[in-house]
Structures are given as structure tokens and as C-alpha cells.
Amino acid sequence: MDDSLPSSGISTPASVPASGTSTPLRGQQANKGNNSKAKNAKTAAAKKNMKEVRILMLHGYTQSGPLFRAKTRALEKLMAKALAPLNLVPNMIYPTAPNRLRPSDIPGFGTSREHLESQDGQIFMDGDKEEEAIDSWAWFRKDEMNTDGRYRFLSEGMQSLAGAMKQDTDGVEAAEAGEGGKEDRVIDGVIGFSQGGAMAALLASAMETTERAVPKEHEEWMNLVREANKGVPLKFAVSYSGFFATPQDLAWLYEPKIKTPTLHFLGSLDVVVEEARVRGLVERCEDPHVVVHPGGHYVPVSKEWVMQLVGFVKSCMEKEMKKD
Which residues contact 271 (CB under 8 A, 6 or more apart)? Predict the structure, then answer.
């Protein structure tokens, strides 16, 4: 709303006031000016006291960071509104996975399943076949050629998350931030969908201070993600249709159970990720909360379901704030 008074429609006083006194019009303007300054000062003070809740948002298989953000904008807005009374403001970070997919890597997109690799990700050749690059990405790929089904490129996926966290916690914006400056700036939690949900649980586990028997092949990326967040574990992890990672070389991430508080959303009509796979992840978490929604393989963004998320995040942040 415009705070200025209209230039017409105001009657002039019948007599001119004595020198040194304000006219009614000027008095109104002065009062409005003072009110405006007071309002601005109050807003600035409120913003200064606001604490950011920094959340990694991990997209699903075949998606990208920008696409996932477009699909969850309603969720982001509802979270911001609901957390404001606690002087919390969500800062959602949407990285894109580093492994580009070909059309033939996507079920239903093509029929070619040859295991070809391309470092530049622009054109993929297969004899007489040629595939153009598409804006579809993955955090890891299941190795169909290996009997143990281990995940290819998981290390690259984790290293990219370490880079995203480090950029946020050590970037220019962090140096200019309040809350004591960039030395206090860390990622608070992670929210993931489908493959991103599985990745969220793995990341939360790897960042814990719990003693785990870490295989040598996973030490490098584990140290990177821990260092990127200054050795601070995540306060919460949320998984939408996320699943338990079955490869034996990742068993250390579930043994002992994941201690980070977790929230799991399960779609009762989900035919992409079976309920047993979601429940498998739930069973490997020490403090799981489960919400079943009557939908399929997607992130429910209506208020009814977003408030379940908000309540969980608020609870986790309040516990941490009490510790401080």
C-alpha cells in the first residue's frame, strides 16, 4: 500500500494556525513518517533475529535441481509461513546430481540398455545409434552387470553434495550473513525424493559422529561431506518415497541404525517404489516418523501434508535451539 496521502479531496483549515505549529496535513504526514520508520525498524529487527534453516533438497532419478524446485515451490512457501512465528526462515538449496542420463537410461523413454559411458554427456554413440543429451540426472546408478548390485557413481554424487554444502557454508553470502558469520553457517537438514530420499538417509548417516566400520573405498567422500559441514551432523532428514540401499558395501551406513531424526512419507498408491523398500529404510532408523498419504510416487504439496513436514522440522529445530 502507498503510504503517501492523495493530492486532492482534502479540505483546507478555515484559519491559518499560529507560526511554529503544524497544519493538520503536515501533522498527518509526520505521524505517517514516524509510523513508517517504526515499522521499518521493527521489520529490520525481526529479520536480524531470524535464523535460517538451511536444507538440502535432493531430487529424484531423472530430475534436476531446478525441476525439483519448480515441483516443490508450494511446499517451500508453506514452510516459510509456518516457521516464521519461531523466527525461522527456510533456505532451500537445490543441487543437481552430477551423473547425466541418456534417454535409454530412463524406463519407458527408450529400449536400449547398453552400458555406455560419456564423460561430456552431450552425445552418446552406440554403433548406428545416437542419443542427444537430456536434462535428466542421477545421484548414482545400479550396476546391472555386477551380481552384488552395487551403486556406480555414488562417490561422485556424494562429492557433489559436499561441494554444494561447502559453497553454501563458505560462500560470499555466508561471509555477509548474521548469526555470527560464516563460521556458524551449516546445513541443518536434508529432504529427498525417491533416489534423493535414499541419498538423504545415506548422507545423514555418513555425517553422524557414530562409530562405523567404514570401508576404505568410501572414506574419501565421507570425510568430504563431514568437512563441508564443519563436522556438524544434520539435525533431521526427510525422505519422500526413499528406500533402503541394498548393496553390501553400504551396510555400514545402517549398522548401527541411523540416529538422525527421520521423517518418511509413503504413498499408498506408489507403484514405482514398493512399500517394502520404504519400510526397509524406516526399520534402519533409530527415531523414524512415518506418514502415509493416499497418493502415488510424488511429493504431496497440499497444506495437509506439508504441515506434517513443518511440524517435524519445527520439533527438530526447537530441540537444537534448547541445547544452545
Answer: 296, 297
46 sits in which H/E element: helix 24-49
Instruction: Show the cell assigned to 47.
Output: 529479520
H runs (alpha helix) in 50-97? 65-71, 73-83
Bond prior to 256 in cis (omega within 30° of 0):
yes
> Please, which residues bridge with residue 191 across strands?
57, 238
**Angle between the N-to-C axes of helices 154-170 and 195-206, in degrees from 0 to 180, rounded to the nearest 10:** 70
**Could you tell me the three cell numbers for 256?**
548401527
- Name the residue type at position 92: M
* All three cell numbers of 158: 556424494
pLDDT tens for 75-108 read: 999 999 999 998 999 999 999 999 999 998 887 7
Determine the Cα–Cα distance for residues 185 and 177; give it in Å rounded to an integer: 8
Concatenating the DSSP letter of every residue in 129-144 gives EEEE--S-EES-EE-T
What is the Cα–Cα distance from 281 to 258, expressed in whole angstroms? 10
- Whole-angstrom Cα distance, residue 305 to residue 289? 14
The model's pTM is 0.79
* Residues facing residue 137 across a β-bridge: 100
Pairing of strands 88-93, 51-58: parallel
Distances (CA, A) of 147 to 143, 144, 246, 248: 8, 7, 12, 11
> What are the distances in angstroms from CA 293 to CA 130, 243, 266, 313?
41, 16, 6, 18
Distance CA 312, CA 117 (A): 41
What is the grid cell recorded at 292? 502415509
Q: d(Cα 291, Cα 323) in Å, to the nearest integer?
A: 27
The predicted-structure confidence for 12-42, as pLDDT tens digits, reads as follows: 344 444 444 444 445 555 455 555 554 444 4
Q: CA–CA separation, 90 vs 76, rounded Å?
A: 8
109 to 101, 122, 134: CA distances (angstroms):
11, 17, 11
Q: Residue 290 is placed in which grid cell?
A: 512415518
